[in-house]
Amino acid sequence: MEIILYISALIAAVAFVILVIYVVITLKATKQTLTDVSETLQSLEKQVEGVTTETTSLLNKTNTLADDMNEKTAKLDTLFEGAKGIGDSLKDFSSSVKEISNTISRASKEDQEKTAQAVKWGASIVEYMSNRKKK
User: What are the transmembrane regions (predicted)?
Assistant: First the structure.
């Protein structure tokens, strides 16, 4: 009976040694996996820092461009206001030319009547002088 006890103790010891070997192998594999994960995370951290730097740079450039666009838009607003002023001036000038044209047209009609009367008077005078010379 003692032999069975020794044999079972021996089997338990061998099983324990095998268990310890497998635990050591598993822990080594886990250590390698954790090392790989750590390296991947460090690489990822560097890439995220690079992306963050590029994003910050791009955001600064975008803000600069937006400020530049706002300045140029303000200048264009001034230009459009000036163009509107020129348009208003041209409209006023056109109205003035139209008034002058109407005034000239009225004066021309009035002068036409006076000219017709003058021609009639002139013809009458010429006719009177001709009749006088004949007598």
Answer: 6-25
